[in-house]
């Protein structure tokens, strides 16, 4: 998922294509003939020179590749081919937060090598260890945990890791200057409102339903008028959800790693909680929650904690007043829905304008309005 400020820019190099016009992201973004020798030099092992590279994931955000040789397997992360916006796809930030959290209670992959100049692949990138485990599938029909008891434990483990992240003292891990926490939520609401104004015309053209989405604009205005006063500061992941974790194969309720730190910064920790709840499904859903869930999630399988139970678990882990937290959370859920709606508008707009692979915007147009409706609903009625 893209974040902060992305802009439609031209790739540094033309993307190779495969039959049907699809972008060959391996050839264009991480050619083995380039990656292998560089990795051999960085890791001091000539066996890496002959490497195989394969994409991981859907490519809607920073690109991820597996790199495999007789020396082993690692993971390479680089910005999308269609965007080099410094704040949106900052590889240095990802590498920095992973390094900072390496010796904390937050499980993260270990960074092995970095390239900051962009001279090798046309953009900065880094390589990290491959964490063996299970990424939760985006489907309740294929759970990696098979019993309600395991699902309950796995769901709580995800919440506990988020609470542990927010308990980390940024200064103690070299992240004191990782962001500007003062006024964080005010800036976030303003930033995403500005992004919507930037993308609304192009989104409307791609959507075929016109550019005007007054309820999205109104949601942003409601949030701007109700920004809470909070002194809480933590490392914020920015896109924390079940599907951005890796679970242990042998102990399927233990989180082995948290992935996708491209949106991380210092800010209000409840922003992570709110977005997690937008992504979180329940076994029994009602509109407008069910309508807004454009991404499937394994958390809809029976046994996973409900959203209310997620909030209670987080409060317990952080030693917060559960009633006070329950009153605070709806604003952050509303903001999470607003942010995701604007992000989707940007993905569709950029894909339609040719600034990103057309496949990235496929099927997303219809997800925007339900997210907006969810944002208003939560501001009016809480998590019910």
Key terms:
disordered N terminus; Aminoglycoside_PTrfase; two-stranded antiparallel ribbon; ACAD10-like; Phosphorylase Kinase, domain 1; 384 residues; single chain; 10 helices; alpha+beta; Aminoglycoside 3'-phosphotransferase, Chain: A, domain 2; ACAD10_11_N
Report on the architecture of this protein.
With 384 residues, this protein is an alpha+beta fold. The protein folds into two domains: 25-129, Phosphorylase Kinase, domain 1; 148-381, Aminoglycoside 3'-phosphotransferase, Chain: A, domain 2 (Alpha-Beta Complex). Helices cover 39% and strands 11% of the residues. The strands form three sheets. Strands 1-2-3-5-4 form a five-stranded antiparallel β-sheet, sandwiched between helices. Strand 7 and strand 8 form a beta hairpin. Helix 4 packs across helix 8 (307-318) and helix 7 (270-279) crosses helix 9 (322-352).
């Amino acid at each position: 998922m893209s974040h902060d400020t992305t802009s439609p820019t031209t790739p540094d190099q033309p993307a190779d294509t495969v039959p049907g016009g699809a972008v060959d992201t391996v050839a264009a973004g991480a050619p083995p003939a380039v990656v292998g020798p560089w990795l051999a030099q960085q890791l001091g092992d000539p066996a890496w020179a002959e490497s195989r590279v394969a994409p991981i994931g859907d490519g809607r955000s920073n690109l991820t590749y597996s790199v495999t040789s007789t020396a082993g397997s690692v993971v390479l992360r680089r910005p999308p081919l269609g965007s080099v916006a410094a704040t949106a796809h900052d590889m240095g930030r990802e590498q920095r937060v992973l390094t900072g959290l390496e010796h904390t209670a937050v499980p993260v992959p270990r960074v092995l090598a970095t390239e900051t100049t962009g001279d090798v692949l046309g953009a900065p990138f880094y390589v990290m260890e491959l964490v063996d485990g299970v990424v939760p599938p985006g489907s309740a029909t294929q759970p990696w945990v098979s019993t309600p008891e395991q699902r309950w434990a796995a769901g709580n483990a995800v919440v506990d890791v988020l609470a542990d992240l927010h308990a980390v003292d940024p200064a103690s891990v070299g992240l004191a200057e990782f962001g500007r926490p003062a006024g964080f939520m005010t800036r976030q609401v303003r930033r995403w409102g500005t992004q919507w104004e930037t993308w609304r015309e192009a989104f409307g053209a791609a959507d075929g339903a016109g550019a005007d989405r007054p309820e999205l604009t109104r949601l942003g205005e409601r949030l701007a008028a109700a920004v809470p006063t909070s002194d809480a500061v933590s490392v914020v992941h920015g896109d924390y959800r079940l599907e951005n974790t890796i679970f242990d194969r042998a102990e399927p309720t233990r989180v082995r790693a948290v992935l996708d730190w491209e949106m991380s910064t210092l800010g209000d920790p409840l922003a992570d909680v709110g977005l997690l709840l937008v992504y979180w499904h329940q076994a029994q859903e009602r509109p407008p929650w069910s309508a807004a869930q454009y991404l499937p999630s394994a958390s809809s399988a029976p046994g996973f904690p409900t959203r209310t139970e997620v909030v209670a678990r987080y409060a317990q882990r952080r030693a917060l007043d559960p009633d006070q937290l329950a009153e605070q959370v709806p604003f952050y859920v509303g903001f999470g829905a607003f942010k995701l709606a604007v992000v989707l508008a940007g993905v569709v707009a950029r894909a339609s304008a040719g600034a990103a692979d057309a496949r990235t915007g496929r099927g997303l147009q219809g997800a925007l309005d339900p997210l907006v409706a969810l944002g208003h609903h939560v501001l009016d009625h809480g998590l019910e």
